[in-house]
Amino acid sequence: MENLYKNHFHLEPPRGLLNDPNGLTYFQGNYYVFHQWNRFDLNHNYKEWGLFTSKDLLRWKHQGSALLPDSDKDLSGVYSGSAIVNEDKMHLFYTGNSKIDGSRRSLQCQAISEDGKTFQKSNSFIITPEEFTEHHRDPKIWSDQNGYHMIVGSQTKNGYGAIAYYQSIDCKEWDYQGIFYTSEDLEQMAECPDYFELDGESLLLVCPQQRDLESDTDISSYSAYYMGDIRDNEFYPTSEIQPMDDGFDFYAPQTFLDPKGRRLMWAWMSRMNSKEEAACPTKDFGYLHCLTMPRELRVIDGKLYQLPLQEILQSRKKIESLETVLYESEELATQSVIDMTWSKSLSSIELALFDQNVTLEYKHQKLILSRKSWSDKQVHTKTIPLKELTALQIFIDSSAMELFINKGERVMSLRYFLQQEKRSCDIRASHQMNLSYSKLES
Ligand code: FRU
Hints:
GO molecular function: beta-fructofuranosidase activity
CATH topology of the largest domain: Tachylectin-2, Chain A
GO cellular component, one term: cytoplasm
Number of helices: 2
InterPro entries: ConA-like_dom_sf, GH32_Enzymes, Glyco_hydro_32, Glyco_hydro_32_AS, Glyco_hydro_32_N, Glyco_hydro_beta-prop_sf, Suc6P_hydrolase
Helix content: under 10%
Mean pLDDT: 95
Distance between the termini: 21 Å
Low-confidence stretches: none
Radius of gyration: 22 Å
Bound molecules: beta-D-fructofuranose
Subcellular location: Cytoplasm
Structural class: mainly beta
Protein name: Sucrose-6-phosphate hydrolase
CATH architecture of the largest domain: 5 Propeller
């Protein structure tokens, strides 16, 4: 059976279930994207770190397993974490998860590599400070002139999401400094925090999670960010909490600074509930989930922008460029980019892809993305208020799509699964647009 869902520019595991991107770094000439991986099965019962590497951010190789749950500190899973390069050694920080007599224990652990191929777990570890429950995980590390910094996603003993802050002077011994940030916004648990400075602003990324939902076995969570300042080891937001992505499938993003000085981000391209995951058609081919494309983050005029990677844009082969109000095609390629710009703000647009499987509508200053579910067969929608629409760029892979709105002011990510090759596209705009359609090189 041919695999119609196999993506070309979204990283997918060779087999098994992939979730969060971990340990993003550049080391000895290669980009490293580690990831949460169950290489044995299509469920979440086992977690190790798998690894993709690349020299150019375009061609990736899966290197198999990197960190296994093989010590008493991490027997129930090597959970998410990050990387830092220090004195030409790669340091990986992760959460060792173990369940002893049914109760959870989380330790923040470290592994070191000199060659980027073998990873030596170190004996030191951090135990959870008194004020948190054992939902304490996903260490993110950075360094500056004051030393090394670590934030860890957590839950306070009275049940709120919180982020813990640690410091180190030698990248080995860590001292707990207190709560970096907590608020009701963080619901009942804060997963996968990230912090960085960009274009003169400080950003905190976090995934607030609601855990005790009565009727649903699924945990509800989403990925968000704040802008703010650090004072006395605490983060003070200057903005409201904002969603990172306004589509259906985006979670657990992580960023790092690449050698070109760019803040690059990958995320897990899934927010599927358990029914959607169970019905996901790639299971027939032995794997589940993918990562988003890498995005470059920028802050422009006080706003966060997410931009598609230059390298990917440069790999486009331009096929068609036209001025039109209408664009119809029966055969949209699986690796394509549609680019639309309007010289003045648009009053409406309707875009239907793949026999109405995915639609996008802009009207009355609202952008509405709809997707027919492969699980309950219903149409689900995501709506965002948007004062004006001046540019839309859509990256279409075989079963993943990312929509960059107004040059990255907002992004909507989603998976879609077509039973047959119905790759039609129908775009109707209220105003003349510059439209270009290109294919991406594989
Ligand atoms: C987020 C997450 C992390 C955890 C990992 C386990 O998706 O729940 O908090 O470390 O996945 O796979």
